Amino acid sequence: MRERRGAGAGLVALAVGLPLLVAAIVMAVVFTGTGVVGRSPLHRAVDRYLEALGGGGTARAAGPGSACPDGAPDPADALRGLAPRFGHHIVSSTESGDSAAVNVDLVPVGGDPVAVLLELRRTGDRWDVCASTGRMVIDPF
Known about the structure:
The chain is of the alpha+beta class. 35% of the residues lie in helices and 29% in strands. The protein is built from 3 helices and 4 strands; from the N terminus they run H-H-H-E-E-E-E. The protein has helices at residues 2-30, 41-54, 76-82, and strands at residues 86-96, 99-108, 114-123, 126-135. The protein has a 4-stranded antiparallel sheet. The longest helix has 29 residues, at 2-30. The radius of gyration is 22 Å and the shape is globular.
């Protein structure tokens, strides 16, 4: 009888521990060490662009031969208008073919986060930031 109880306890521990282990592995794969949702090429392009701008530097929104619409203004001016220096956090993104939209929280130095939407286009294997809607306002009602 004693052996049966030990085997049952082992099965219970396995039933509880296995899902926790799987959840930990999934979280490790989905989130990077910085808490940014999955590091896809799309997210890396947004990170590079915003890190340069947020640090006070310059960033090229669209590279040569970009799929961005002709004559579109560089989104850097709109983003700097919201905050001259900022950090950022990618909240979510959607991707359809060669177009993508990335929701980002800009985190100004000493200020509250500002939600923005970046529109990107893919040219070959490169993602270019084409536009920013600027400040996003969501009506809570």
